Amino acid sequence: MPKASPETSIAGTTSKTTRKAAGSNNKPAKVSAAKLPPLDNHSKKIFVLDTSVILYDHSAVKNFQEHDVAIPITVLEELDNFKKGNDIKNFEAREFIRFIDKLSSEHKLQDWIPLNGRNKGSFKVLMNNTISGVDAINIFGDKNDHHILNSALKLQQDKPGNKVVLVTKDINLRLKARSLNIISEDYETGKIQDVADLYTGCDTLEDVAAGAVNELYEHGFCDAEKVLPAPPTDNHFFVLKSFKNSVLAFYNIAEKRLERVDKQTAYGIKPRNAEQAFALHALTNPHIKLISVQGVAGTGKTLLALASALEQRREYKQIYLARPVVPLSNKDIGYLPGDIKSKLNPYMEPLWDNLKYIQNQYPETSKEYQRLREMVELEKLMITPLAYIRGRSLSNIFFIVDEAQNLTPHEVKTIISRAGENTKIIFTGDIYQIDTPYLDSQSNGLSYLIDRARNHPLYAHITLQKGERSELANLANELL
Q1: Polar residues composition bias: which ranges (predicted)?
Q2: Which of 320, 332, 465 is nearest to 381 (CA)?
Q3: What's residue 4's pLDDT?
Q4: Distance between CA 87 and CA 389 in Å, rounded?
Q5: Using an 8 Å Cβ cutoff, are 294 and 465 in contact?
Q6: Does residue 195 have a pLDDT over 70?
Q7: Which of 39, 121, 212, 467 could join 68 in a cystine, given CB atoms 3.0 to 4.6 angstroms apart?
Q8: Residue 450 and residue 307 in one domain
Q9: HSE toward the beta carbon, residue 391, CA cutoff 13 A
């Protein structure tokens, strides 16, 4: 039997709410392990969803196959605090509230309501969390989290023959649940099973026939069947090595052949290794419209994306650079002084740093230097937040999304769905450097995109392995 998310869908995700304690004078009670009744293996499971799951995926209640799903009334109370705003979590809250409203127009939410769809279970709102025996509020204090735990405990008492499972993105809540003998799981819809096997976009082939390597050097292409035993992933890159020579190659899915990859220069930026050459080749390929570049800090992800955008500036109306605003130390953007531009500048400084680095490749009196300044002044090159992307149509845009590992799968889908004619979208990031609570290397939007979009003719991916920022930066990545 599958875990909390047997079905997989492109689903919206976001972080969990921070709950406020109501304060309690109750002294901690002694914890005694609650004895669970024997389970009927032939009965349905009942999954109790936490607020974090709804904010992660408003359609989560539909992703448990034939099993029943319930939410405590406390979850609805918390969702009410998130219905206003432009963030993805606000959208998720509103969509789920609409779903509940539609259900309640025909049924009582206190009753088990059949969910529409083949082999679907039923849904209800848990109104009562008054229990006998072990009480989470007496043990842990009067908080919304603990009301949710009591709802699960009450359901265990009312349904002794069913397996009750609390599903939450909050690790600490899962641990508290298990301490009360409540089975608890993470919500796993959309999660990548093994990031160690995540698609890298390139391979090295040893002992390639010298004739094929020579043909690539002389003619720029060769028949893929001469080198590869089977057709590779669309837009895949190779380092081909023969006895004496090696060559960089790209599998052109349209022509079904291997083509030589040269180390080209983009607006003064030249690749320093094979992976960077592959990335720049994909970024400047007019037939590839969606690209992801993954790598640790200092590998040149954002710099290469920006340099390639500037190199192709004549092909697009505007260049957009964006990154998710992830406040540190729980300080929201509203705490910063000034207008929206002033508030955003601290978060966007890394993008400005890359722009200045490219600009400094040229003398201040040069045309290239002045052109960059004019592009910023005329808003041909714009650095913008992602908060207001929903509802827009982006046509004739070169769109770079930095730090994409801090996006949810639903946010990535939303951005891509905004693409109009002649728009190219690039996602860059490091799936192991995540600043957003309740996302990890398996559930973030960048990993999801790499896993799902591979082998599509419009998509290319490359993982940058070697840091090129400095030896000092490499020391941090390798040793610390």
Answers
A1: 1-16
A2: 320
A3: 53
A4: 10
A5: no
A6: yes
A7: 121
A8: yes
A9: 6
**In the structure, how many helices (H) and strands (E) does the chain have?**
14, 17
Q: Report pLDDT for 128.
A: 82
Indicate whether 474 pLDDT > 80.
no
Angle between the 171-179 and 144-158 helix axes, to the nearest 10 degrees? Answer: 40
Q: Residue 105, SS3?
A: coil
- Residue 75 CA to residue 84 CA, distance in Å, equals 16
Which of 335, 315, 310 shows the shortest CA–CA distance to 325?
Answer: 335
> H/E element holding 51?
helix 51-56
- Indicate which CATH number applies to the domain containing 76: 3.40.50.1010
The rounded distance, in Å, linking the Cα atoms of 270 and 280 is 9
Residue 412 has pLDDT above 80, yes or no: yes
Structure tokens belonging to residue 293? 């570049």
Pairs from 149-152 (Cβ < 8 Å, separation ≥ 24): 149/173, 149/176, 149/177, 149/180, 149/182, 151/48, 151/70, 151/72, 151/73, 151/74, 151/126, 152/48, 152/72, 152/177, 152/182
Instruction: Answer with the residue of higher pLDDT: 329 or 72.
Output: 72
Q: What domain count does the chain have?
A: 3
Contact 227/209 with Cβ under 8 angstroms?
yes
Alpha helix (H) residue ranges in 386-454: 409-416, 445-453
In this structure, what are the phi and psi dihedrals at residue 415, rounded to the nearest 5 degrees? -65, -50
Sequence-separated contacts (24+) of 256-263 with Cβ below 8 Å: 256/224, 256/231, 257/221, 257/222, 257/223, 257/224, 258/212, 258/216, 258/221, 258/222, 258/223, 258/224, 258/227, 258/228, 259/216, 259/220, 259/221, 260/216, 260/217, 260/220, 260/221, 261/237
Same domain, 319 and 458: yes
Q: Answer yes or no: do 307 and 328 share one domain.
A: yes
The pLDDT value given to residue 480? 66
Residue 24 has pLDDT above 70, yes or no: no
CA distance 182 to 175: 9
Where in the sequence is the domain holding 206, given as residue range(s)?
194-262
Residues 178 and 204 in one domain: no
Mean pLDDT of 281-297: 95
Q: What angle do the packed helices 301-311 and 340-359 form, to 10 degrees?
A: 80
Reading the block at residue 203, the tokens are: 């391979």
Q: Write down the pTM of the prediction.
A: 0.79
As beta bridge partners, residue 184 has 166
178 shares its domain with 199: no
Say how many residues make up the chain: 480
Could you give the 3-state DSSP secondary structure of residue 57?
coil
What would you measure as the largest C-alpha separation in the chain, in angstroms? 81
Strand partners, 323: 385
With beta carbons less than 8 A apart as the criterion, state whether 293 and 305 touch.
yes
pLDDT tens by residue, 379-394 = 898 877 776 676 678 8
